[in-house]
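queue> pop job 88
queue> type: inverse folding (structure -> sequence)
queue> payload:
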């Protein structure tokens, strides 16, 4: 068996022009495509649940409604159809919840995503109290301001004398506080 001689440079160009080379490598798929299935599984397990609503229930429906209702569970619709939110409501407040049902659905859908909830099912019963933060609100105790000079007070009164009474009282009070504070601190740092 004799070997065929190697093609010349010109023959090699013709062969390469007629034959395809290896196709270029495809770029890797976007991360969102690969993670989409995983995120859907997590969302179905943990995302759209009553537990995710309960932590922010007061923000979603307001303090008044949160005192008398709690989300129990979300019954998912088949396919991509909206689900049903089951609420536990204190007996007499169930009429209020039923009356404001459309507003509650809108607010919950804003939190969970469009068309997550279509209906509300009300279950009457006791509701555990709202979980509030254990930190007590800080009280601001202001030290009393020193009295201002009578001449400065008279000048302040004269400058607001022609204003309506409610505005005159408010501006006088503000002016006295500003003058007393500037006297207390000595020189006005804002001048």
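queue> result:
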């Amino acid at each position: 068996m004799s070997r065929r001689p190697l093609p010349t440079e010109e023959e090699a160009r013709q062969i390469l022009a007629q034959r395809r080379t290896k196709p270029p490598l495809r770029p890797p798929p976007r991360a969102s495509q690969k993670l989409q299935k995983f995120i859907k599984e997590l969302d179905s397990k943990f995302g759209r649940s009553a537990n995710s609503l309960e932590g922010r229930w007061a923000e979603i429906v307001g303090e008044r409604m949160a005192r008398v209702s709690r989300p129990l569970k979300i019954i998912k619709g088949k396919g991509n159809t909206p689900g049903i939110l089951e609420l536990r409501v204190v007996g007499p407040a169930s009429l209020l919840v039923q009356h404001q049902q459309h507003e509650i659905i809108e607010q919950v859908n804003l939190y969970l995503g469009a068309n997550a909830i279509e209906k509300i099912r009300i279950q009457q019963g006791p509701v555990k109290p709202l979980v509030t933060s254990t930190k007590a609100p800080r009280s601001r105790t202001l030290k009393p301001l020193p009295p201002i000079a009578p001449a400065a007070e008279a000048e302040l009164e004269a400058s607001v004398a022609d204003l309506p009474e409610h505005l005159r009282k408010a501006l006088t009070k503000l002016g006295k506080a500003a003058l007393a504070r500037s006297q207390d601190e000595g020189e006005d740092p804002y001048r």
